[in-house]
Specification:
This is Mutator-like transposase domain-containing protein. The chain is mostly helical and 207 residues long. The chain contains seven helices and four strands, in the order E-E-H-H-E-H-E-H-H-H-H. The relative contact order is 0.07. The structure holds zinc ion (ZN) (2 copies).
Amino acid sequence: MCHFQACIIGARTKRILHVNVKNKYCVVCQRSEHSREHKCFRNWNKTSTSMEAAIISEGFQESIKKYNLIYGRLIGDGDSSVYKRITESAPYGPTFVVEKIECRNHLLRNYLNKIADIGKDTKLPILFRKKVTNSDVLGRFRNAVTKAIQYRTEHATQINNSMHTKAELLRKDIINGPRHIFGDHSNCEDYFCSKSEEVSGLCIIIS
Ligand SMILES: [Zn+2]
Ligand SMILES: [Zn+2]
């Protein structure tokens, strides 16, 4: 990717707080061998993956000056490079830790992309790959996670589980999702399924 755009949006206000674009290439620089004087759009010469992290981190650095605000919590995707960059740059001094909240939509997107990747991996037998390439099955993967998140969130307010326990139980549910989808209900929680759904017929060959 030769240009990258990223922005920070306030979770409550839905207002754009910071936006920037990084360009790796400039049309004029590309076309002319002798660089004539021009308004150059190239403002990035490092790797593309660091562009997003740089833009977001800049926004955090400016937040006090621009809005007199501390961005205390970051709702972000599973990509850890952005959060890592923010922690390293310590925009509010070394003792203030910006908290990270995982976004369910990003989590699901990453999860389903990884499963779709398995479907494209030609090292695996086509018969098995087909099991995860249709949208019905991908939808079931999505539902399993959504259901677990919903239950663990609502249930958590009824019983007095600590945040750590809640996260641990949710983690177990998410890992169990694929087993449930392919018919192994031995580890399914009662809330999760009635354990009588028909087996989808996937044989797992262990060699
Ligand atoms: Zn240029
Ligand atoms: Zn089940």
